[in-house]
Specification:
This protein is an alpha+beta fold. The chain contains 5 helices and 7 strands, in the order E-H-H-E-E-E-H-E-H-E-E-H. A 7-stranded mixed sheet has the order 1-2-3-4-5-7-6, sandwiched between helices. A hairpin with a 4-residue loop joins strand 3 and strand 4.
C-alpha cells in the first residue's frame, strides 16, 4: 500500500538506511528534499513501513518518481511500484519519468518491469564515488500505463 505523506521519523529512517543511501550522488547529500514541487508517498506492507517514493512535479503534465524502498521489502517492490504508479496516473498528468544512475542495472530493470521504456541517456550527468556516470532516462506515458 502507498499513502500520501510521510512522518519525519520515517523520512529520516529512509535517508539513513545504508542500502538506500549507497545510490546517492557525490554532489548532493542523501537528505530529504524540501521543495514545493517535491512530496513523499509512504510505502507499507501490512503495518510495516517499507520505505517511500519521492515524487517531483516537473511540469503540469509530468511527475518524476524515485523509489526509496528498504532492502527487506524488495520482494514487494513490484506491488509497491504498481501502487505508486496507480497513484501517479490518478493525477492529471500525461507521463512519469525515472532517472537511473548508470551501473544501477537492478533499478533500471525494476522500472522496465513496471512498464517504463528507456528513452535515452544524459551523458556525464552525475558523479558517484568519484566516478563520472551517465544517467538513464526512463519514461512511461498514460497510454503505456493503460496497457500494463
Amino acid at each position: 500500500m502507498v499513502t500520501v505523506g510521510i512522518t519525519q521519523q520515517h523520512l529520516m529512517e529512509v535517508y539513513s538506511d545504508p542500502y538506500i543511501t549507497k545510490v546517492g550522488h557525490d554532489h548532493r547529500p542523501a537528505a530529504p528534499i524540501e521543495h514545493p514541487n517535491a512530496m513523499y508517498l509512504s510505502a507499507w506492507v501490512g503495518n510495516s513501513f517499507a520505505g517511500a517514493f519521492l515524487v517531483i512535479r516537473q511540469s503540469a503534465v509530468e511527475l518524476e518518481l524515485h523509489a526509496l524502498l528498504k532492502k527487506p521489502f524488495l520482494k514487494y517492490s513490484r506491488n509497491l511500484g504498481v501502487a505508486c504508479l496507480t497513484w501517479a496516473f490518478a493525477q492529471p498528468i500525461l507521463r512519469v519519468t525515472a532517472y537511473i544512475i548508470e551501473g544501477l542495472e537492478a533499478a533500471k530493470n525494476y522500472c522496465i518491469k513496471l512498464g517504463f521504456k528507456e528513452e535515452g541517456r544524459r551523458r556525464c550527468a552525475c558523479v558517484q564515488g568519484g566516478i563520472v556516470k551517465d544517467v538513464y532516462v526512463l519514461g512511461m506515458t498514460r497510454q503505456d500505463w493503460g496497457i500494463v
